[in-house]
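Quick question, first post here. What does this chain look like in 3D?
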Amino acid sequence: MGLTHDGPAAPGAGPEPVLHGTVDMPRLRRLLGVPELEWLVERVRGRLVAGQPLTGAVSLADPTDGQRSAVERLLARAPGGGRSLTVRLEAVAAVLSRSGVSPDGLAAAVTALTGPVTPLARIRAEEEAAWDRAHTPLDALVRDRPELAAWAARVRADGLARRLGRTPDSVHTLLTGVCAGLRALPADPAVSLAAFAARVLGSAHALDDGTPEATLTLSGIRALTGFADGSGAEWRREVWASAGVLKDELSSTVLTLSLRGTPALDWTAGQGEPAVLTLRQLTRRPFSVASPVVRICENPTVLAAAADALGPDCPPLVCLQGQPSAAALALLRHLHGNGSALHYHGDFDWGGLRIAGALLRRVPWRPWRYSAADYRAALAVSDPQLPPRPLTGVRTDSPWDPDLAGALAEAGIRVEEERELDLLLADLGGAPRGGP
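> Answer (accepted):
Ran it through. C-alpha cells below.
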C-alpha cells in the first residue's frame, strides 16, 4: 500500500509544501506514514470507507519488532509484550491533534496520506444509480409497447442484462439496441435475420446465435408472441420466425390440405394429400386462389385424420403445428387478404389459448368450436381412450371469448384437439369443398 498521496516532486519543482490543508505532511509521514504502520492506516481507512466511527481498539496478530517499535514511537509508550499488538484509535487521534501534525484528527491524517475516501454507502448508491440509468431504454420501450412491461420488469429483476453486459455503459448500449429491435417486431412482411440486424442494429451479425443482443431479443420475442420454453437451434429458429424474422426461407413451413392455386397444390388437393409449403414459396410466388372459408387446426393429427377420412373431399385446412410459424402467418395473411374467412380450433389448455391469442393478434379469425360453451360440452363427453388430464401452466386470456379462460380455470381440465377429432371431422365432412 502506498502512503505517498502527493507523489514524487516533478523535476524542477519547488520544495514540497509543509502543509496539506491543516496537516503537516513531512511530520505526518515520519510519524504515521512509515511502512511499519501501514496496517494501522489500512484499518483506519477501512473504517472510513465502511462509515464506521474511529473509536475503540484495533489489533495486529504476530507483529514484528519493527511494528511494535513504530507504535511505541507514535504513542510515546511501550505497547506491551503480548502475541498481538493493540492500539486505541482515540489515543492516536489525541497524539496527532496535540502535536499539531493533524489538528483535525485521525480521519484528516489518513485522508492526507492515502487520498480522498468515498464511503461504501455512497459508492453503492452511485453504482445502483448507474445501473438504473443503464436500464432506462426499457422504460422508453414499455411506454411504446405496454405489452412488454412484465418482460422489462423481469429483465431488471433477474439481472440478465447485467450479466450479459457487465458494466452500466455496456448494458445501456446493449438494451438500446435490443429495444430498437423489439419496437420493430413483429416484422411484416417477414425479413431475413441478417437484413433485420443490419437495418436495426447496424451489423448483419449482431443477432447471431450466442450474442447478448440475440439472447435478450429472443427473450423479448417470447414475451410478445407467447412462444413456449425450449432450446436448440430449431427452437431458436422458430422463435425468430414467430416474429417474422427468418434465419432462412426454407426452414419455416406450414402444413395444408386441399388448398389450390398452383399446379403442385392443385395436384395434392386432387389426391387428397397434405402439402408442406415453405416460406420461400409463399413469399416468392404467392398463389391467387382463395377459398371462401379456410379452417385452421393446431395439431397435425387433425389434418392427417381429415386426409384419411375425407381425402379430396376435405375442405381447405391449415395446420399450425403449435406456434404459428412465419410461413403459416404469411399463408393466413394471404388468404385473409384474398377474402377467405378463417375459422380456428386448438387445444383447450393455457398453451392452446396462448397460441390462439398470438394468432389473433396477427390475423383475424373466428372460433371453430373454440368457445366456453364448446369447452363445457367437451367436458361432458367421456372417452376411456383419452382420459381427462389436469390443466397446468400459467393462465392467459381468451379475447375471442372472455368466458373461455374462466371456464378453463374453473374446471382445471385440459381437452386436447385429439379428443374433439370426431366432432371436427364431422364438421369438415358436412362442409362443401371450399365453403363453410
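Residues 19-117 form one domain.
The mean pLDDT is 85.
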